[in-house]
Amino acid sequence: MMSADLEARVPGFLRGVRLQRDRVRDQWIVQAPERAFIVDPVAASILQRVDGNATLAAIIDALASDYDAPRDLIARDVIDMVEDLAARQILVCKS
Amino acid sequence: MTIPFPMSLLAELTHRCPLQCPYCSNPLALENVRNELPTDVWMRVLDEAADLGVLQAHFSGGEPMARKDLPELVRRAAKAGLYVNLITSGILLDEASFIPLVDAGVDHVQLSFQDVTPEGADLIGGMKNAQARKLEAARVIVAQGVPLTLNFVVHRLNVERIPQMFDLAEELGARRVEIAHTQYYGWGLKNRATLLPTRAQLEQSERDVAAARARFGAEMAIDFVTPDYYADEPKPCMGGWGRRFINISPSGRVLPCHAAETIPGVSFPTVLEDGLESIWTKSDLFNRFRGVDWMPEPCRACDRREEDWGGCRCQALALLGDAGATDPVCRRSPDRSRIDAAIAESADAPLTYRRMSNHKTQ
Ligand code: SF4
Ligand code: SF4
């Protein structure tokens, strides 16, 4: 796929999976059926923008401006992470 | 020792259940409906659990859908930020009873099946035509879009049908499957001679699960619990005593695991008398086997002591009469011969069903 096609996809959480603030332990977690796991602050900043409407391109743009970082670098991280989480039944991507 | 925050609350709302599985994890002395906690106390307990760090609430029983206030409790748990898991037999689940639970915020359902054949299911559940109702329940859950786990407890009488269990899960659209070998406490211990699989059956079950993992890949999450009788080391029961789980009985007793009520000589804390945080951090029961200081030899000097935490306290109690002993499943335990004798003893005998009348109180 071309990178424009890749970035046109819209990631969303699978039903029954969500990002949540664990206020007692002061960290971000993903809750899923029969498991909860910690997500690091970088992953959390990506997942906070996953709402089932925003395209990957929009998420990457927002992160690049928030962190004032090169867009290429951010794009690679975001796409890798989203694909990994899709393979693990956390996210789904609509094109 | 710093005390970890608990991760999960197992809320056993009731011991009422239309089924009578002969391996049920409920205690032999089933709680009467008159002693069940009222709605407002459960509400408070759910809030306290979230404040204490619990992330997931598992509503179970018995059959939790036998409680009329289940939608209210689910709503409260969801509002407190808890991930809500419903553990059900599905017998009471239809559109009319399930949609209010979805509206209230149920995140996931774990539906138990006793077998893949109606005859096998009736034999274990002790109820006629249960299978058809469970299949219908699965369809309702999937139609509502709620993620579904199928749970199969396996034993000598059904273990050969594991491949068909996965077929059924695929056909019904389940996202997770649990294949759990029977654990031999309480009712399961009573029926151990009939239910314990042979070593050949266990090995076949391992091959069947491996084949399913290869077949489904990431499409289906698979959880496999082996019978520890055939292992060399015990399982870390509940992830260690007082480390991850809080179990609350229908009458409000707070326990580190569902079988802990059998331990003699301790007073059981209850939510009617104390708050959850105080029970978790300060009670004698939760501190009794927490960490490694209580351990006897050979655990005390063992390099696995912080992996399996000396195994299951309730198994040590049930088989050796001492909850503070090394789990006899362990090859290093001086009492391992008890487990080997049980394996040699297994035979085809009639099942004792989970019923109030099948337990005489001493
Ligand atoms: S194991 Fe069987 S009898 Fe026990 S609560 Fe579950 S469904 Fe009911
Ligand atoms: S000796 Fe104790 S800690 Fe070591 S493996 Fe056996 S049960 Fe576990």
UniProtKB/TrEMBL annotation, chain A:
<dbReference type="GO" id="GO:0018189">
    <property type="term" value="P:pyrroloquinoline quinone biosynthetic process"/>
</dbReference>
<comment type="pathway">
    <text>Cofactor biosynthesis; pyrroloquinoline quinone biosynthesis.</text>
</comment>
<dbReference type="GO" id="GO:0048038">
    <property type="term" value="F:quinone binding"/>
</dbReference>
<dbReference type="InterPro" id="IPR022479">
    <property type="entry name" value="PqqD_bac"/>
</dbReference>
<keyword id="KW-0884">PQQ biosynthesis</keyword>
<dbReference type="InterPro" id="IPR008792">
    <property type="entry name" value="PQQD"/>
</dbReference>
<protein>
    <recommendedName>
        <fullName>Coenzyme PQQ synthesis protein D</fullName>
    </recommendedName>
</protein>
<comment type="subunit">
    <text>Monomer. Interacts with PqqE.</text>
</comment>
<dbReference type="InterPro" id="IPR041881">
    <property type="entry name" value="PqqD_sf"/>
</dbReference>
<dbReference type="Pfam" id="PF05402">
    <property type="entry name" value="PqqD"/>
</dbReference>
